[in-house]
Amino acid sequence: MDRLRAFEVFVAVVSRQGFAKAAEALDTSPANVTRYIADLEAHLGTRLLNRHSRKLSLTESGEALYERARSILDDMAEAEAISASGSLAPRGRLRINAPLSFGVLHLAPLWPKFRAQHPEVELDVSLIDRVVDIVEEGFDLAIRISRSGSAQLAARKLASSHNIACASPDYLRRRGTPATPADLTGHDCVGYTYWATADEWQFRDDAGTQHAVRVPCVMHSNNGDTVVQAAVAGMGVICQPSFLTGAHLRAGRLVALLPGYHLPDIDVLALYPSRRHLSAKVRVMVDFLAEQFSGVAPWDRD
Fold first, then answer.
1. C-alpha to C-alpha distance for 84 and 107, rounded to whole angstroms
2. What value does the mean pLDDT of the chain take?
């Protein structure tokens, strides 16, 4: 069995949702398509497709193979284009993982501009707040908000963001304004599920002294935008990055707290599997994002 051809047939069947449509796209017969899928399933020892009367669906094994097979075919297409043109022309599908709120607020507006510059690159963007294994889950690139990169991945810093303790004017009128981090123990707080130190918020004063306080949280969320909107609505004190809070602080919907006390800054990083043999599509995306976020980050601009 020609496994590369079998992958091509399998991807065509899934993407076109049918054996006949795949056969037409590949200029072959439906019988050949059926045979390739059967041989591939027999070779792997697992069912890849569930056949329904009107449509197909992927099994769990089929979903995993589909992502990997598409990536292999994209890489093959890019390699052929490089050989044919003698240049590293970016093309093919680029799978990107990014945090939900950051992806919506600060990446989504950039995609049309990138596509205008690189029309042969197909973007496949997944917004997930949990930390994914980009190699295991088949991503080409991840945008991560972190104070550190990864020992297993290459990283390029795109920008920084300040973590800020803040609350709404309405909440502060009702509950008063904390003067020190220790005062937060008497306030309602809204916590972020993925905060590195959980409900222990760690501040550093101007003299360099550390102040760690375990805050009482009346709510937690795994989504930063939800945390910010809860604070805007007057629910309590939050610690969130300026890429989420900046517009609300400038508009007066939130008020920065604890002047003279600072939370650790975080970096916006582009992570990818290796610096060696970096594909053209990943390279141009990383360069593009670095250019867009150069200088003062958009969330810190007046």
1. 33
2. 86
